[in-house]
Amino acid sequence: MSGVELLKNSFAYFHIFVFCLILMGCI
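^ thats the sequence. predicted structure below, dont judge the formating
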């Protein structure tokens, strides 16, 4: 696994986390 793939993966998980926070805030 290359560093770029790892970076993209963590970035995707970060966006999911932020999306969940926004969703919780809206509810």
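The radius of gyration is 12 Å.
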